[in-house]
Amino acid sequence: MCLTLQTREQHIRREKATSNIYSNESLCALAAAVYLSFLGKNLRRLAEINLQKAHYLKTRLSELRGWAPVFSGPTYNEFLMYCPDPQGINQKLQDSGIVGGYMAGNDYPELKTTLLLCATEMLSKGQIDEIIRIIK
Fold this sequence. Notes:
This protein is an alpha+beta fold and 136 residues long. The protein contains 4 helices and 4 strands. A 4-stranded antiparallel sheet has the order 1-2-4-3, with helices on one face. Helix 2 (43-62) runs parallel beside helix 4.
């Protein structure tokens, strides 16, 4: 049963229903389905681009003093990095209009000096280089 485009209030008051999206989860699923159908055969190329961007960002960060990957295995878009000052780094990035990483230590005290970072096809090489420049 798919409720994506049914009115939200239809199960409560059909005569007063005004919205067309049942839930945010359904809207996200619909957007993902449309995007994936748009990509079609290019999905593999997109995955390769994401791998390259994440690897490039992780490699560049690893060159900085005090930065190191938490896990040695392969990663896709996201990866966890040890860093000297997660909160300070996020503040620097935010001051430059960039959303920083997730501070894993907020939920996992043993990871208090780590950031969860992500790189996708939406991030250009120039933007990655700019992030590195700001963090330095």
